[in-house]
Amino acid sequence: MSSKVAVLIVTGFAALCAQETPLENSVKINLSPDSPLTLISANLGESHVSQRGSAVVLDLDMALTLHNASMNRVRGVTLLVAAQEVTPGGRASVAVPSLDVAPNQNFPVRINLRLLRPAQMSGGPLVQVSLDGVLFQDYSFYGPNRLDSRRTMTAWEMEAQRDRKYFKSILAAHGLEGLKHAMLETLSRQAERPRLDVQVSRGSPVSSAALPEHSVRFAFLHFPGAPVEPVEGWAEIAGNEARNPRIDVRNLSPRQVRYVEIGWIVTDRQGNQFMAASVPASGPGFNLKAGSTSRVLQDTALRFSKSGGGAVSIAGMTGFVGQVEFADGKLWIPEREALANAQLLGIVAPSPEEQRLMDLYRKKGPKALADELHKF
Amino acid sequence: MTHPSESILALYAGGDLGWLARRRAERHLARCSECRSQVQAFMSVTDGLIQWNELPAIPWSRVAAEMRANIRLGLAAGECVRSEPLAGPLAWMSNVRTLAACASVIAVVTAGTFLQRPSPPSPPVAARTGAVLRATVDGIELNQGGQTLSLLHARTGEVTYSVGAQGSMRAGYVDSDTGNVTINDVYVQ
Predict the structure, then answer these.
(1) Scanning every residue of chain B, which has its alpha carbon at the shortest distance from the alpha carbon of A49?
(2) Does residue B88 surpass a pLDDT of 70?
């Protein structure tokens, strides 16, 4: 009898182990020895592996504590998250902009990730986390920059300065009551911002159905002072899918441009406008010397549907220049006034800093927001 | 504080979690009123469905007790019909049966070990099929040949999504625990 009990216990334990397995060996965090950030701790919290039929699900809930070992204040961090074994054609990043971390201070970064893979797969770390870049207060940068995080974080920092300046000017001119009014206006605009569900695929249509295609021409918004202007552009439309946007842009500035990003708005048959995507152009094939014209081109298919379901019938498309990077690394972003004048504030997503300020106002009120704006 | 996902809470409410996961959920629920109320909500929905007769209420413990009783009955019946231990010239047959049983166990263990070995690297299915990015309720999902990578946003209020036509999707949100704005990007190449 005792041997039967022993067999039952062993079998039960084995079944339990098969159901839940610890994840420590599946995650690797790489920070180079000369990195200005050091890893203080990596808490895997309630991360776990579980089996679903013939697949394995890895739920990673990781809280990293990083230390600023540099002599400069950190304004943003981007971590590269790779799971090459599971999705060899994809990668991910987790970025924390709008930071203000003094030297020798610690700060948290959280990564929540889920992987679904077949049960039979070779061992080794499934998820590798590494530093892609750190942006400092003086716009200096450290990191391998594989994801172009230098440009991305610099643009976020410029947007943060722009939006803080706007709210500071309201606070200075109209006090707390004015700030409250402006924040309520911003919150209401974001609540009413029309949203689209978008699926993205590279090089092939998102849906397999062969739908008749036709070219639709872009209309363009022009911002005063923009160094680059869109000239003309098209995309192929098939049902609720848009494919292969191509836009010709002209460099109006005396400096060479190495990156241009075009904002892409779609209009449905009811006249509603939605921010569809940004269309970037960079790399060796993109060369925009002073006064020259070049083409922004992406081999992508986007399928649009409304947030509550239902396809979007695309009636028109509008483009605007959202970001420009010069050959010397300097960036241009649109002024807030230009976005407001073009009625874009209610269409484009708020900057990360504006999102953070809105959250602060919502949770702690106008006084806390004013104190935050006075910090820097 | 890290909260269990909605699916964990729903499974807990339905009593369908494994032992370890249930213990973990209980530990969390003991100190989190928010999740407790969510579990209550799930439980009330299940109760409601049972009341409406949309789902039959299955008395699992009674079913389990019946199954146990049937197994006991089967074992008892087996004991009744079992012949006396063989003696004399036929005793060797009992040893043969034992040997056969041992050989079967060894065969099962060997097959299990063989099947559990890491398989040699084969071209990933993902490489042969298109990759699609989409926003889900709790994050951004990259699906490549049935395998998925999802970056999730922690429990938070407003999440803003944006799309890069070069093949990327972005979710921006304020992390409710750290108060930092966090930007998750997933790229398809």
Answers:
(1) B21
(2) no
